[in-house]
Amino acid sequence: MLREQLQKLFPDHKEEVLAEESSSNIWLQDEPLLCKYEKRNGKPVTLIEGYTGADADFKILAKELKTHLGVGGSVKEEKIIIQGDYRDKIMVFLKGKGFKVKRVGG
Q1: Is the pLDDT higher at 84 or at 2?
Q2: What's the number of domains the chain is made of?
Q3: What kind and span of H or E run contains 1?
Q4: What is the pLDDT of residues 8-31, one digit of tens each?
Q5: Concatenated DSSP letters for 3-54?
Q6: Mean pLDDT of the region 99-105
Q7: Of 60, 47, 63, 57, which Cα lies nearest the Cα of 106?
Q8: CATH of the domain at 90
Q9: Residue 40 falls inside a structural domain
Q10: How far is CA 102 from the centre of its chain?
Q11: Pairing between strand 33-40 and 101-104?
Q12: Residue 30 counted as domain residue
């Protein structure tokens, strides 16, 4: 609605789509990240593994994921563990960041 009003006020303006800059500058890799679903102690968890960059970048990525989803999780043994089954949302988020993602199982 606001865009339409602005377009009427400034008909000659061309809207530029700016590439969203990553605030963390996480290293992107060639190999896809693996997104898995498991049950641990009867509770669903989503695992992201296969990242070959720095540990600090992996922790930043985990924090961004947890904040985006509003859930808990941790980083252990080069895996991001997210509480709950959020494979679809995680895959969309990671693809938006520029990662290649592969869904494993189910």
Answers
A1: 84
A2: 1
A3: none
A4: 888 887 766 544 444 456 677 778
A5: HHHHHHH-TTPPPP-PPPPPSS-PPP-SSPEEEEEEEETTEEEEEEE---S-
A6: 88
A7: 47
A8: 3.30.780.10
A9: yes
A10: 13
A11: parallel
A12: yes
pLDDT value of position 6: 79
Residues 62 and 87 sit within 8 Å (Cβ to Cβ): no
Q: Which pLDDT belongs to residue 106?
A: 64
Q: What pLDDT is recorded for position 25?
A: 64
Q: Give the structural domain span for 35.
A: 24-104
Q: Is 89 exposed, middle or buried (0-12, 13-18, 19+ CB in 10 A)?
A: middle
Measured between alpha carbons, how far apart are the two ends of the chain, in Å? 41
- Whether 90 is in a domain gets the answer yes
Q: Are 72 and 83 in contact (CB under 8 A)?
A: yes
